[in-house]
Design goal:
globular, 122 residues
């Protein structure tokens, strides 16, 4: 993936990934089973988290994700990969269901309201 400006929302993430990836890369990604998207966590996922500032509080993309109650950079990149996979396959992204999945994950881990940025478990 080529380096690009930081997207401001999920739609811009999808568009940038489409524009900055080769047809072969997109076709390969499209043909994976959705549960296999996690293989991109390292490599491309690390690139996205670092270049789009997902570990910082000042990134416009982090501010977008925080506004929809997603606080961890790994969760953000997971939503990005799941969403582009669904987009490429003509499926509904189901963003609300993805958000609920991550909120519930963090609640089970003991974080009230599903927010893993809290300093103490409540």
């Amino acid at each position: 993936m080529k380096k690009s400006k930081i997207p401001k929302n999920l739609d811009e993430c999808i568009e940038q990934l489409k524009q900055n990836s080769s047809k072969e890369e997109l076709e390969k990604f499209k043909n994976f089973k959705e549960e296999e998207c996690c293989i991109y966590h390292h490599g491309c996922g690390t690139n996205i988290r670092n270049n789009w500032g997902l570990w910082t509080e000042t990134s416009p993309l982090v501010k977008y994700f925080n506004s929809i109650k997603i606080y961890h950079a790994d969760d953000m990149s997971g939503i990005i990969f799941t969403s582009i996979h669904r987009h490429l396959n003509g499926k509904d992204i189901e963003l609300e269901k993805q958000i609920t999945f991550y909120l519930n994950y963090w609640k089970v881990k003991g974080y009230k309201d599903g927010n893993p940025t809290q300093e103490k478990l409540r």
